[in-house]
Amino acid sequence: MNEVQLKESERVDDLLNQDLQIIQSDEVFSFSMDAVLLSRFASLPRRGTILDLCTGNGVIPILLSVRTEAMIEGIEIQDRLADMARRSIEMNGLEHRITIHAGDLRELPALVGHNKYDAITMNPPYMPMRTGDLKINPHQAAARHEIHGSLEELIHAAMKLVRPGGKVSMVHKPQRLGEIITLLRQYRLEPKRIRFVHPRIGMEANMVLIEALRDGKPDIRLLPPLIVYEENGEYCPEIMDIYYGSMRDKGDC
């Protein structure tokens, strides 16, 4: 690992079982299971270029780097998070593979051009502006609420950025699945794979993983549910494999 300078309140955490580390701060952002599951679920090209929207502290690009030889980019609107992501990438010696842009993803198509990326991932804010308490820490509010762009704006930007035949993968809340499918199809992103994530057997899903194909034909595969916890409170075997097994050369979850 390369040495990097930490700022006040920051710490370095191990990143699963991948010989990787990441800079985090409780004041700003800490990655959670949704990012880990998305990084395993997304179909990736072996080579080419991948973009992660709403990249936060860079956890998804770093995790994707062990599954593909492609070049990876991320974009984050919050300068502090983008800086954390860049230093984490430097710490892991991945500067030659991963580039972080600081800026508004809605403006990215005009800057880099359309149809550029072979695959896109996104773990966007789950809550529209009309819901929730926005009086929390501004960094956390931006991570949870659509302050810097609506779901429609993010999907529209993804459509412009991904090449025809490229894939867009995202994680979101099941309550918004109908809206998500409608918007994906509105912007020529045809849903192809959907997987619900359930805390335990018999409980409602609390996450959904979705993959869409730019300009694809209608044909949705509903994958088996992913169960997080056993009845005894321990992780189910598949979650244990995702967290503590090797992600290298592994298929999608």
Comma- or semicolon-separated keywords:
alpha/beta, Rossmann fold, two-stranded antiparallel ribbon, 253 residues, single chain, 25% strand
CATH architecture: 3-Layer(aba) Sandwich
Measured between the Cα atoms of the first and last residue, the distance is: 28 Å
Number of structurally distinct domains: 1
Runs with pLDDT <50, length 5+?
A: none
Give a count of the beta strands, DSSP E runs of length 2 or more: 11
Q: Helix/strand-derived class?
A: alpha/beta
Q: Give the oligomer, counting copies of the same chain as homo and different chains as hetero.
A: single chain
Description:
The protein has a single domain, classed as Vaccinia Virus protein VP39 (Rossmann fold, 3-Layer(aba) Sandwich), CATH 3.40.50.150. It is of the alpha/beta class and 253 residues long. 27% of the residues lie in helices and 25% in strands. The mean pLDDT is 90. Strand 8 and strand 9 form a beta hairpin.
Short description:
It is built from 8 helices and 11 strands.
Topology:
Blueprint: E1 11-14, E2 21-24, H1 33-41, E3 49-53, H2 59-64, E4 71-76, H3 79-91, E5 98-102, H4 108-112, E6 117-122, H5 138-144, H6 151-161, E7 162-172, H7 177-186, E8 189-198, E9 207-214, E10 221-222, E11 226-227, H8 237-244
Parallel strand pairs: 3-4, 3-6, 4-5, 6-7, 8-10, 8-11
Antiparallel strand pairs: 1-2, 7-9, 8-9
